[in-house]
Amino acid sequence: MSVFTAAYPVGHPDPDVSVPDNIITNHDSACQERHNDAVEITDSLMKNRFSCRYYLPKPVEKKTIEEIIDAARHSPSGNNMQPWDKVYCITGALKDAIGREMVEAHTNTPDAYSAQYLYYPAGPIPPKYAKRRFEFGKHFYAPLHVDHGDLKGRARVSTRNFNFFDAPVAFIFTINNGLTQGSWLDVGYFLQSITIAARARGLETISQEAPAKYQLILRKHLPIGDDEVVALGMSMGYPDLEKVAQFSAKQPKREVSDIVEFCGF
Ligand SMILES: Cc1cc2nc3c(=O)[nH]c(=O)nc-3n(C[C@H](O)[C@H](O)[C@H](O)COP(=O)(O)O)c2cc1C
Fold it and tell me: Which positions fall inside the Nitroreductase domain (predicted)?
């Protein structure tokens, strides 16, 4: 019994412990030569990303989506559990039907719905985060000419969440209800990988916690199991850059010196 098989009950098939050779070829010399390009391209894909709320009515090929998920599935996860269960990818008439129903619910009976988890604390948010949240609102609503106190205007804007900002593709991500915070972190890696892989193909995305509230509607239309928690939505498509420029502002980001505390350097 090897160190690997010792962890398994008697009768468990031997795991394949061979080292995949591509783990080494990732660092081959050809890759090193391209390194400078890779830095520039990767940093640019990350630094220029933004949450896109305006899309062109241009379809996204299923093959492109498969490629994106194929890249993102290599994301790390604790003990390689890969807890991105499951990814519902929706388009066409089904997406429109779900969108219509969520908009209707959000407009008329929002109190009848709730998400299966709290995205934000139920109580007060610690002051520095509350301040950043307020700043977000200023940058978000100013180009839309919606005042901070204009609750109707704000509601009108947030309703766009529920038809997935008219994006041609929407995703719903669920996580098994037997898993805990660590797995939710893992799914975050997966989501960011999707975002960057999408950008590399000229697509933009926006992550959305808002649709999680209408999980009962999503469950009516999608084969979501009872053991799945509806965690997040995401819209994806080719950006309408004219509208993006007109109605969106770059959200401010914290400086490196504010984020990192170098210790022992
Ligand atoms: C997990 C997650 C959930 C989010 N949910 C929503 C949402 O429901 N609706 C929305 O308009 N934006 C949502 N956002 C986008 C944030 O508002 C946005 O990331 C933030 O304001 C920073 O702006 P940026 O993404 O353009 O840099 C979400 C972002 C994340 C990471």
Answer: 47-238
